[in-house]
Amino acid sequence: MSQTTHANEIAIAIAKVKKVVLAANVSKDLEYFSYHEKRFERMAQSIVKTVPKGSKVLDIGSHYLHSAMLLTELGYKVFAVDVSAFWEIEFIKTRMADFNIQGIPENDLESFKCVAQMPGMYDVVLFTEILEHITFNPVNFWKSVYGTLKANGLIYLTTPNSLALPSLLRSSRNLLLLRGVGIKVADIFAHVTYGHHWKEFSRSEIKTYFKMLSEDFEVRTYFFNYHKREVEGIRDWMWQSLMVVGRYLHYFSPDIEAIVRVNKNKGFKLAAPDYY
Questions:
Q1: Would you report the helix, strand and coil content of the chain in percent, each value rounded to 5?
Q2: Which residue, among 5, 4, 13, 6, has the nearest Cα to 49 in the 3D structure?
Q3: Most buried residue, 36, 176, 182, 194, by most Cβ within 10 Å?
Q4: Collapsing DSSP states into helix, strand and coil, what is residue 107?
Q5: HSE of 242 in the Cβ direction (CA atoms, 13 Å)?
Q6: Rounded mean pLDDT of 195-205?
Q7: How far apart are CA 263 and CA 158, in angstroms?
Q8: pTM listed for this prediction
Q9: Are the CB atoms for 114 and 144 separated by under 8 Å?
Q10: CB under 8 Å, gap of 24 or more: what pairs does 228-236 form?
Q11: What is the SS3 assignment for 126?
């Protein structure tokens, strides 16, 4: 299938998802879709050119089901994982029914027991904008992901680049002013736990991360930028300008896309640490 055909299919699918979001008229849902729309498009492009239609996709951290709806429209069978609170929201229940998405509640990603009885079931694990939120030791989680993927399956991951110019500038300013490092104290109280970016990664760190877990993980990384921000003043203009400059400087681009091939030849090698 030609690249133009893929692009047309993706554009139609995104338009349908956008129509669903607009019809629901939920402010946080609308805000999230609007901000991440270009990222959804990028994800769809990468999946469509890499994974055949009909493949099974496990969308971990499925949130408002934007990615799940999009991939379903493009011909994939999507299983969506998130905390049980999401499956009690009425508009999400409606989306699951309308798009035939199977919801899987999981309140403990550290153990990720919901996939324990699903060895080699999925072709793709979608893990977008979540890596930076993990606060627990992730070894057993990734061991479960490794187990539930088919041989030669894929992990598709996106995450903010820790070397993005706005992040570097903000961190440098806070250090110079002796304010501290990491997220602001006010942010700790303003969001639910999974709302924070506890650790952002560079390109080299992502490669090291998966290499330590298993030699079966083959990682390809790419830089990109999807952010859309209204320019309402000098600070917004500076932020947007830094994003543009960072994109052209490559390693300082705002976001990282990682496509991880799981060969399953040598096995999962890293064991989680113990308390004693």
A1: 50, 20, 35
A2: 6
A3: 36
A4: coil
A5: 18
A6: 89
A7: 20
A8: 0.90
A9: no
A10: 228/34, 228/35, 228/37, 228/38
A11: strand
Specify the 3-state DSSP secondary structure of 161: strand
Asked if residue 214 lies in contact with residue 266, where contact means CB atoms within 8 angstroms, the answer is yes
> What's the rounded mean pLDDT across residues 140-164?
95
Residue 62, judged by CB atoms within 10 A of its CB (0-12, 13-18, 19+), counts as buried
Task: Outline where DSSP puts E strands in the chain.
Answer: 56-60, 77-82, 102-105, 122-128, 149-160, 217-224, 255-262
Q: Give the Cα separation of 244 and 174 in Å (integer).
A: 22
The tokens 């330590």 sit on which residue? 212
The angle, 0 to 180 degrees and rounded to 10, between the axes of the packed helices 203-213 and 139-148 is 70
Q: Check the CA dihedral 235-236-240-243 and report its sign.
A: positive
CATH class of segment(s) 3-262: alpha beta
Tally of residues, the chain: 276
Amino acid 246 reads G
Among 37, 32, 49, 31, smallest CA distance to 13 is for 37
